[in-house]
């Protein structure tokens, strides 16, 4: 007999989420093709038809990362799990790791290093600025026993892109491994994993790939595979141990954990779409929409946090104009327009908005909608002067002058 004391207080029925437009730091809008893929019949995670799909998924990810690494697959878990997986497999207690910190995610990497038993040597740069390669080289020179260099390619908390090629070149020069966070960059800006010589990379499904959250594509070089194979001390995580996971994602197909089959159909579909569009076209689309958003924001006097050459087209951090009520603007955008934009994180809370133009949220009609909603909201609130209609016009003019190249 059940008792009433465990009964929910209200009568709960099916959950119907509102149809929002997601233009913050992620998740981005899931494409209808991906949503449809998610709803297909569930298969067993060892079903031969499913394992065939897994092979396609791995090859599509190799294309996205521009790598030939055999060890390329999606981990069951959000981007944070991909991050942790890199550190926990590659660090042996006592190892020294240089972590570049120019925003929130560098800070999380430090946590990961320490929890894996390593020592983090921190190279700090200001929020809103890229990692300074000179500081990294100075640190490498001073510490010849450093094993790993870790940095975020795209720092989502600030909208900055760091020079991955130069940083990984330094790692090579001083004979250490690289771990690179590409959660926000994958699909949105160029990544050449092999050409740049990156050893370990992780990403997320919900940013420029426009899948629901919960999967983290990762890739590891042959060097990392050897390193992990040769460990005498067990990896300090059962779930994330690459050697064990390979039993499932490798050729033997033995049970490790029940893979989230439907979520993986979704990622497969998103990567098929990326492949159909072509990486270069996807990068160009993200850039074109950023330029249009920028032209519109300019008409409202809204200024960027990051200097032009280091901006991420998919994550636009801007200063909230003086006198404008941050929370009220975001509340109105959500209530009146079903539009979500990003608030500032950490040091930037209350000072910065983050407009995400990621994946399926990086579209002409969404840029125009976002500019129009923001402009109207600011005009209605009256705290700053804006000219109604100017933002969308500026964006339209940008699009007209910059047609999509074939
Ligand atoms: C979003 C993000 C993460 C974390 O991903 P989750 O899926 O939220 O765990 C890590 N790094 C960067 C740069 C991100 O933008």
Automatic annotation (TrEMBL):
<keyword id="KW-0808">Transferase</keyword>
<dbReference type="GO" id="GO:0019265">
    <property type="term" value="P:glycine biosynthetic process, by transamination of glyoxylate"/>
</dbReference>
<dbReference type="InterPro" id="IPR015424">
    <property type="entry name" value="PyrdxlP-dep_Trfase"/>
</dbReference>
<feature type="modified residue" description="N6-(pyridoxal phosphate)lysine">
    <location>
        <position position="207"/>
    </location>
</feature>
<dbReference type="GO" id="GO:0004760">
    <property type="term" value="F:L-serine-pyruvate transaminase activity"/>
</dbReference>
<dbReference type="InterPro" id="IPR015421">
    <property type="entry name" value="PyrdxlP-dep_Trfase_major"/>
</dbReference>
<dbReference type="Pfam" id="PF00266">
    <property type="entry name" value="Aminotran_5"/>
</dbReference>
<dbReference type="InterPro" id="IPR015422">
    <property type="entry name" value="PyrdxlP-dep_Trfase_small"/>
</dbReference>
<comment type="similarity">
    <text>Belongs to the class-V pyridoxal-phosphate-dependent aminotransferase family.</text>
</comment>
<feature type="region of interest" description="Disordered">
    <location>
        <begin position="1"/>
        <end position="28"/>
    </location>
</feature>
<keyword id="KW-0032">Aminotransferase</keyword>
<feature type="compositionally biased region" description="Basic and acidic residues">
    <location>
        <begin position="1"/>
        <end position="10"/>
    </location>
</feature>
<dbReference type="GO" id="GO:0008453">
    <property type="term" value="F:alanine-glyoxylate transaminase activity"/>
</dbReference>
<dbReference type="InterPro" id="IPR020578">
    <property type="entry name" value="Aminotrans_V_PyrdxlP_BS"/>
</dbReference>
<dbReference type="InterPro" id="IPR024169">
    <property type="entry name" value="SP_NH2Trfase/AEP_transaminase"/>
</dbReference>
<protein>
    <submittedName>
        <fullName>Aminotransferase class-V</fullName>
        <ecNumber>2.6.1.-</ecNumber>
    </submittedName>
</protein>
<dbReference type="InterPro" id="IPR000192">
    <property type="entry name" value="Aminotrans_V_dom"/>
</dbReference>
<feature type="domain" description="Aminotransferase class V">
    <location>
        <begin position="43"/>
        <end position="344"/>
    </location>
</feature>
<feature type="binding site">
    <location>
        <position position="354"/>
    </location>
    <ligand>
        <name>substrate</name>
    </ligand>
</feature>
<keyword id="KW-0663">Pyridoxal phosphate</keyword>
């Amino acid at each position: 007999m059940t008792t009433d004391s465990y009964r929910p207080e209200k009568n709960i029925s099916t959950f119907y989420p509102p149809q929002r437009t997601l233009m913050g730091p992620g998740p981005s809008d899931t494409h209808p093709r991906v949503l449809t893929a998610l709803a297909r019949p569930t298969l067993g995670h060892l079903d031969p038809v499913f394992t065939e799909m897994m092979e396609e998924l791995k090859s599509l990810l190799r294309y996205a990362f521009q790598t030939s690494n055999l060890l390329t697959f999606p981990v069951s878990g959000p981007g944070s799990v991909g991050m942790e997986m890199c550190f926990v497999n590659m660090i042996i207690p006592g190892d020294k790791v240089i972590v570049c910190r120019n925003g929130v995610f560098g800070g999380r990497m430090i946590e990961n290093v320490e929890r894996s038993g390593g020592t983090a040597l921190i190279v700090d740069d200001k929020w809103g600025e890229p990692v300074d390669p000179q500081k990294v080289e100075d640190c490498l020179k001073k510490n010849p026993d450093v094993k790993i260099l870790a940095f975020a390619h795209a720092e989502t908390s600030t909208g900055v892109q760091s020079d991955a090629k130069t940083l990984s070149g330094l790692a090579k020069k001083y004979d250490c491994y690289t771990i690179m966070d590409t959660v926000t960059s994958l699909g949105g800006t160029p990544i050449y994993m092999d050409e740049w010589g990156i050893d370990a990379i992780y990403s997320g499904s919900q940013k420029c790939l426009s899948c629901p959250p919960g999967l983290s594509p990762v890739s590891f070089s042959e060097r990392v595979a050897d390193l992990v194979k040769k460990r005498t001390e067990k990896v300090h995580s059962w779930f994330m141990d690459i050697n064990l996971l390979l039993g499932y994602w490798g050729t033997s197909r033995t049970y490790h954990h029940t893979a989230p089959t439907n979520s993986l159909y979704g990622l497969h579909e998103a990567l098929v779409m990326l492949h159909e569009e072509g990486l270069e076209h996807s990068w160009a689309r993200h850039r074109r929409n950023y330029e249009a958003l920028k032209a519109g924001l300019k008409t409202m006097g809204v200024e960027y946090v990051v200097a032009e050459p280091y901006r991420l087209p998919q994550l636009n951090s801007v200063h909230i104009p003086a006198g404008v009520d941050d929370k009220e603007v975001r509340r109105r955008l959500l209530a009146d327009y079903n539009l979500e934009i990003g608030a500032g994180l950490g040091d930037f809370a209350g000072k910065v908005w983050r407009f995400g133009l990621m994946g399926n949220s990086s579209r002409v009609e969404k840029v125009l909608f976002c500019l129009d909603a923001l402009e109207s909201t600011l005009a209605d609130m009256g705290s700053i002067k804006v000219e109604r209609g100017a933002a969308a016009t500026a964006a339209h003019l940008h699009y007209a002058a910059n047609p999509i190249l074939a």
